[in-house]
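Sat 14:20. Reprocessing the chain from the morning session after the first attempt stalled halfway. Input below, unchanged.
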Amino acid sequence: VRYLETAHALRPLTVTPPLRILGMMASPPNLPPIDMALEKARLERALARVRQRGLVQLEWLPGQSWRDLQRAMRQGPWHGFHFLGREEGVLAVTDAGQAYPLPANQLARILGDHPTLRLVLLNACEGGLASHSDIFASTAATLVQRGVPAVIAMQVEITETAAIEFSSQFYEALAEGLPVDTAVTEARKAVSLAIANTLEWGIPVLMSRAFDGVLFDINAPASPGPMEIKPPQEERVPAQPQSATAQPSATKETVRSAPVASPKVAQKPVIDFDWVTIPAGKFLMGSDKQKDKQAYDIETPPHMLYLPGYAIS
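Finished this time. Tokens:
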């Protein structure tokens, strides 16, 4: 049962944009302060393009406690959770006006039973840093082990400029239907290009249990392209020659119409493979420098090999 539930949770979730991202920022008063208004403004400015296109909807949690988070999760569905704050092995949230350490297993308990939540982005220091004795000791790894399909976290401290650039490009690529690992690569490229002479592009790490990296099947109208499949044309009955006893000409009732696909449904081309069976046997492998002057040394000498039967397309 656990395996079937996990397999179902890892299937791409069909989503009609926008992707709903729940944002949470925590700045406990007894820890070094975070300018929450400034950080929110920076992230919203970075996501302005995708928000204007209707691809991403970012909604901020009004409070900073785990109770506020639990309450907001019931008001979903949410597709992603974005945390801005501090982490010293555990997320630091606020409770009763003081810092409250929220361990990864507790955070997973809040997020884990929401099947539409496919992504967690922890913009907090060391959320992706494992210990020397346990590579699965990080917050990100714990969340993935508890069922979250994909978690992005920072291995060490990252500057706000790099974090904002990463988030902007990542969400845009993800909302366009790219797999999560490809979206992370696109975001890393953006960081390396936007900030000269930096290695911060390597700080964000992805931990995922999705089979092919596809978290969302974006249900958006497909634009016509070169691979567009046109619906079949109507096949009409050839006209019969007139005779003494006049026959009615072809009418709508005598027209055989093939099923026409709805133009709103994106048709995907069917790929067929022509398989050829190659029988088992010997073959000569390698090059002869007397016949091929440009042959590399690693290609010589020619030698016989036996290969079992196989199929090739």
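The chain is about 25% helix and 20% strand.
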